[in-house]
Design goal:
Blueprint: E1 4-11, E2 15-23, E3 29-38, H1 53-72, E4 77-82, H2 84-88, H3 92-103, E5 107-109, H4 112-124, E6 132-137, E7 142-148, E8 151-158, H5 162-168, H6 177-191, E9 204-207, H7 209-222, E10 232-235, H8 236-247, H9 251-255, H10 268-282, E11 286-290, H11 294-304, H12 314-325, H13 330-346, H14 348-351, H15 355-367, H16 379-389, H17 397-408, H18 421-426, H19 429-448, E12 456-464, E13 467-474, H20 482-496, E14 499-505
Parallel strand pairs: 1-4, 4-5, 6-9, 9-11, 13-14
Antiparallel strand pairs: 1-2, 2-3, 6-7, 7-8, 10-11, 12-13
Helix pairs in contact: 1-3, 4-11, 5-10, 6-10, 8-10, 13-15, 13-19, 15-17, 15-19, 16-17, 17-19, 19-20
């Protein structure tokens, strides 16, 4: 395939966003550009159901800027969608015609169900969860999806979002308790008409600006050491404390709240009222924030095509995409991952590790050499940095850090890059012991395929009588210095308590 650049525009009720995704000739993709502008397209619509002239001018001005960036970035395909504000406006179609005339961008007005589907695709392909209630909370609508076994079982679009709910109950400035209670009660009346929402006690997943701001505020409150909102998780008690704090503040005080976007301070109470209502109706104990939504859904729908837009294994796909993006040696990486898996399974009684930890080992094995793209020397540390900071989907924040340590230690354990406080705040002593064991397996596998041509075709790993044995199936002995093997034996003895031996078979 030839390289391709895709521009995706999401014209929402509160903001307009442009992302550009680059797809390489090997199929790897990455986010190449992102721009967000506040347009407040739904502002003032509540009265007559019409997009207001000032709001339309803001939107068209922003889209003209987007059009120029698309031209400069040499984009091949532009996919633009408009959501609730345009969908609900009586002059929405006329506005879209004007947009095309003045900017050249062909914007598709999508229905509520289509918007919910795109949000579902964006979330389900980037967060590894089986069951959840997904809400996409925009400025003028809230899309709700019941996810069971990663499938969308129920979907509904409600014509209320952070902007129009704020306007309806006059929550822009200093909202009284009675106003907030009325807003929540209003949303609960709508939620109660959806029996599949009630008391299901599965996690909430939130996408959209309100959800992202909830994450950022909570992270500031907790001095969270990672600046990442995607897959950030907070419990009901954390949300309740956040609600109590924000709902009691004046507008000027909200503008000074750490983590809260200044441009969202006047509409945040409307958004939080919707989330509070969802917590109340579902009795959920956890909120997971997704940084991915409609835009990513549009991308996956395009990228995956006829497969239906759902990835069978998020983590495997994401790791392989990262491997291809950094032009890694895919054959060597896959073989090292297979060798490490054989040891993990053969020595399972000795290692006493979980199936989930085996997945982390596989990801670290696939990505252990990508740091070579920065510099061969000290490349394990470079690999760890890339793994830590990548858009690697399917892992929690803690798991991603642990995977980075495993990849970074594939030659030997080292405190060189893990002295940063983020590692020590997230990982406990059990995590460090796990990292040493998994990195040990990766180091052995890397040593067995140091030639990167598969001299060792396969292995059998056996643990018996306090001794771990490796049987290597190879046509010739691998070129390995005795000093290298001695170091591995010592590492093995230190972290497992067992002796390591090796023999060959043709």
């Amino acid at each position: 395939m030839r390289p391709e650049r895709i521009a995706i525009i999401d014209l929402g009720s509160n903001s307009a966003r442009l992302i550009v995704m680059h797809i390489d000739d090997n199929g790897a993709y990455n986010l190449a550009y992102h721009q967000k502008e506040a347009v407040r397209l739904s502002e003032g619509m509540a009265g007559d159901g019409l997009l207001q002239p000032a709001a339309m001018r803001r939107a068209i001005h922003t889209l003209a800027i987007f059009a120029r960036m698309i031209e400069l970035l040499q984009v091949d395909i532009t996919l633009a969608v408009a959501t609730a504000a345009v969908r609900n406006a009586r002059n929405g179609p006329a506005f879209i015609q004007q947009v095309e005339q003045e900017t050249g961008i062909n914007v598709q007005i999508i229905c509520g169900d289509a918007e919910a589907t795109l949000g579902y695709l964006g979330v389900t392909n980037t967060i590894d969860i089986q069951d959840a209630v997904l809400f996409d909370l925009g400025g003028g609508s809230t899309e709700l999806t019941l996810i069971k076994n990663r499938k969308a079982e129920q979907t509904v679009s409600l014509p209320f979002g952070s902007v129009n709910l704020t306007e309806k109950f006059n929550l822009q400035n200093n909202a009284a308790d009675s106003q907030l209670e009325s807003a929540i009660a209003f949303m609960l009346r709508h939620f109660e008409q959806l029996p599949w929402l009630k008391d299901n006690s599965i996690p909430l997943i939130g996408t959209g600006g309100t959800a992202r701001n909830i994450a950022k505020i909570d992270q500031k409150r907790k001095n969270y050491p990672i600046a990442k909102v995607h897959n950030y998780r907070l419990g009901w008690l954390s949300f309740a404390a956040l609600w109590q704090e924000i709902s009691r503040k004046t507008l000027s005080q909200r503008r000074k709240t750490p983590g809260l976007s200044n441009g969202r301070a006047d509409i945040i109470l409307g958004g939080l009222s919707i989330v509070k209502g969802l917590f109340d109706i579902t009795r959920s104990s956890q909120l997971i924030i997704s940084g991915c939504g409609v835009r990513e859904g549009v991308f996956f729908q395009h990228y995956l095509g006829s497969s239906g837009g759902i990835l069978p294994d998020i983590l495997e796909h994401s790791a392989n995409n990262m491997l291809l993006f950094y032009k890694g040696h895919t054959g060597h990486a896959s073989h090292v991952a297979d060798l490490a898996a054989a040891m993990f399974n053969g020595w399972s009684d000795l290692l006493a590790l979980s199936a989930r930890q085996q997945k982390l080992l596989r990801v670290a094995a696939l990505l252990h050499d990508i740091g070579i793209t920065i510099n061969y020397y000290d490349h394990p540390r470079h690999s760890a940095y890339l793994v830590e900071n990548a858009r690697l989907f399917g892992l929690t924040h803690r798991e991603q850090l642990l995977t980075a340590v495993i990849a970074g230690w594939h030659e030997r354990p080292s405190a060189k890059f893990v002295n940063h406080r983020v590692y020590h705040e997230f990982l406990d002593e059990n995590d460090w012991q796990t990292a040493r064991k998994l990195a040990l397996l990766l180091a052995i596998a890397e040593t067995l395929d140091a030639s990167q041509i598969g001299l060792v075709k396969k292995i059998e790993a056996v643990f018996s009588g306090g001794q771990a044995h490796l049987l290597l199936f190879a046509d010739e002995p691998i070129p390995m210095a005795q000093q290298t093997w001695t170091k591995l034996e010592r590492w093995f003895k230190k972290d497992t308590g067992a002796n390591l031996t090796m023999s060959y078979s043709r």
